[in-house]
């Protein structure tokens, strides 16, 4: 812009100077012609007086010999014969010369004698002869050339000075615009600064005011867009779902952090490339192709390492660039899959656990109903078997109900202060048959007197742990019950010197229906849900457990429940 203004300004000055030189030259030439004509008339009057008084024309020419370079004097008779000439001899007849034909009028013509352009003026003397004076045009042109040369030099000086002055003025004039440009660049980066009015440039101030308004609006819009983009980026990067968008060329145009990490995808190298650079699963590829071909949505389940994902593939007619696209969303359904597996296993195990006693009950009942057993002792044995299996079923159902309650946190509302000594007494009383049967020696050390929680939950927790310590013990074994405070927790330590648990099975003993020794469990009549109930009670009360066990040496389970600060 600056160069353009400089060029246009200099061009304008150059044109003005050229016009000025041409006009001045024409005016100067005209003025010089008039001055020369005036001089001719002056010399004509002066010499005409002398010639009328003195007919010796040669003497007059000799008198003005000093003017030969400037003035040509000619005397011509009435027939056109040249009587005397200051610059030539033996001249042709001049009767037809324009100046002789037009007495008293100035004429400019080429001189055949002197071979130059001259200005002529002739008058008739009293004796009938002609006095002709001529001045070379070269004398006029020399002055005119000098004038034009001087004008050109002055013009060049004016142009140079104009360029320098114009550069300074343009620089000063454009400075506000440069400042405006810098401020607009800041606005483009989201940094708004108001442009202050200029004292010397009232014409620009209105423009500045409008720019300030537009800039403020643009800055606000940019800030809003950046804020929205930051929110969107934050959500995309921190959402626990995988998100990918493909354009109509099936290229990746958007990919969030979750999906990038899931596939260990190099986004810098593979962005805007075919989706197969990311999705290698054939099932996913087929679903994507189907979405593009049929323009319809679909859902599939895929497995990546040990996790399961529900993949939602949706076709969209337009996205932010007004083109068709396919949106792919990955939802981690591993927990749901795990729950589904657990439910399936639970129903299978529950059905199996109920089927065995039911089969025994039905079989025994059929034998009695069909009067196939006559022996009273055998009938009594069958009735006892029916009773035992019914009790076993009842225990299983009660444990299932209890497990359902603790899983759904239905017991936590009934909080109370529990006497731990009394609670342990109740547990031992409840298990006294099994304790006496195996002649188990109980060692108890209750250092904490009370604790606040749901009494039934705490009873079930201690009862299931002590029951396992008794049932999976050896005859004449020992069980230790220690309750103490440590590090803001109440610790319930149940230890035995029984059969122990193998290391590889220690992580599974809290699963539903899992038994370490299935044959022994069937013989002693456990339901397989006791430790599952313990685990969910601990979850509800933010507790922890630690297990230490060695085969044939016994098991130690330490339960930690947080102390309630008063």
3D structure, described in words:
The protein has 15 helices and 17 strands. By secondary structure, the protein is of the alpha+beta class. It folds into four domains: 2-143, Beta-Lactamase, CATH 3.30.450; 239-332, PAS domain (Beta-Lactamase, 2-Layer Sandwich); 338-407, Orthogonal Bundle (Helix Hairpins); 416-562, Heat Shock Protein 90, CATH 3.30.565. A five-stranded antiparallel β-sheet has the order 2-1-5-4-3. A five-stranded antiparallel β-sheet has the order 7-6-10-9-8, with helices on both faces. A hairpin with a 5-residue loop joins strand 4 (117-124) and strand 5 (130-136). 20% of the residues are buried.
What is the strand arrangement across the widest sheet?
A: 2-1-5-4-3
What is the CA–CA distance across the termini?
80 Å
The biggest beta sheet, please?
Answer: 5 strands, antiparallel
Q: What is the CATH homologous superfamily assignment of the largest domain? A: Histidine kinase-like ATPase, C-terminal domain
Rounded mean pLDDT score: 79
User: How many structural domains can be distinguished in the coordinates?
Assistant: 4
Count, helices: 15
CATH topology type of the largest domain:
Heat Shock Protein 90
Runs in which pLDDT lies below 50 for 5 or more consecutive residues are none
* Structure summary, number of beta strands: 17
Shape: rod-shaped
Q: Label the structural class.
A: alpha+beta
